[in-house]
């Protein structure tokens, strides 16, 4: 048995960290787009808007019901076959698109559950002071639902950061892609993948810490 | 000034309100009493369309609405001319006491946050909770929460405040402070309709007491008359029950 090549591992860290902005950038972009899309889907589902509601259900069903990797391949390799303007789609864009659509399907259901979980009296109180439905949703229901949904949404964000590693299958050299290349040239596979695993782990731990702070802040109003 | 005519509400086959007529002049106070499940709360909730009446005519101030044909503008109009105090307070859980009172002024009246907060502070002074401006509902006692609920209703400067059993959910120790605030409002000539089981309050404050049973108004009279000399047997029987021994507090 051969000892771990620690010098190689230490030297690899700064090389791989150079790819961190791309990984985090794709995750952040995906999360922002997914939040917007999922809020829209959730509101459509809650208000049972005809036609749109069915469309939202179908969307959620498909993107929850198929693997992310299949969806990424479908967008990157498949769609340009029919939609010629997508021929020039790059791997990064395709990944952000895939992450957005995939995760928004899950997040929409969490947000919907959070909205329907808000006590009916909150809506009635808002109506009683003469708020419109849109005002009630924006100022009373969504802020409270945000607090309920935050732990779940943060979990999806963590999952999304890790899922950016799939971009490497679309030829994007992000954290995972770079590691693969480094490992292939050094033949130190174990060391290389151990380093990248630790990097992902530390990012997620840092995020969990932020999550705790955020939840504490959001719970401020509910302390007795 | 406020007039209800033929207000009818059905839940499926069951008629909860069977053609209610009621009217109040500015500054008048009506207390509605009656057994549980006779539609008292539903009647109040029909005035601002938290429940949609099936038929009838509602007039609040300068707005008159045919319930069966009410548009969303009509409903909004009624809600902006009335204010509601809920049995379970229903304060906005994510907003402070001050923000709860200021919310309507910001959203409905379009006041700046600064001005709305200044006015909300005045209301907090009036209800004796100036020191709780930045407290969230969860940190307040039931009595304090309900006083904020009333403060929120006061902020509306509504034609009428509708009180739906405002002391029923309170621990007995908090009932007095809420009733005291309502009496203060009464002394300021605030028009109100109050559904309550607090007979003493009705006696002291009401201009008219309405006894409801089975979705109908059985009897309506000034408290001096209704409590001492009720005409209908059903009223007598109800009053015997609730006034037996020590008048039970809001149950």
TrEMBL record, chain A:
One of its GO terms (molecular function) is L-cystine transmembrane transporter activity. It is a multi-pass membrane protein. InterPro entries: AA_ABC_transptr_permease_3TM, ArtM/GltK/GlnP/TcyL/YhdX-like, MetI-like, MetI-like_sf. Pfam families: BPD_transp_1. It is found in: Cell inner membrane; Cell membrane. Keywords: Amino-acid transport, Cell membrane, Membrane, Transmembrane, Transmembrane helix, Transport. Residues 20-208 form the ABC transmembrane type-1 domain. GO terms for cellular component: ATP-binding cassette (ABC) transporter complex. The chain crosses the membrane at residues 20-44, 56-76, 82-103, 156-176, 188-210. PANTHER family: L-CYSTINE TRANSPORT SYSTEM PERMEASE PROTEIN TCYL, MEMBRANE COMPONENT OF AMINO ACID ABC TRANSPORTER. Belongs to the binding-protein-dependent transport system permease family. HisMQ subfamily. This is Putative amino-acid permease protein YxeN.
From TrEMBL, chain B:
PROSITE patterns: ABC_TRANSPORTER_1, ABC_TRANSPORTER_2. Its EC number is 3.6.3.-. This is Putative amino-acid import ATP-binding protein YxeO. It is found in: Cell inner membrane. The keyword ATP-binding applies. Coiled coil: none annotated. Residues 2-239 form the ABC transporter domain. It comes from the Bacteria. The keyword Transport applies. One of its GO terms (cellular component) is plasma membrane. Gene3D superfamilies: P-loop containing nucleotide triphosphate hydrolases. Belongs to the ABC transporter superfamily. It comes from Kushneria phyllosphaerae. Keywords: Amino-acid transport, ATP-binding, Hydrolase, Nucleotide-binding, Transport.
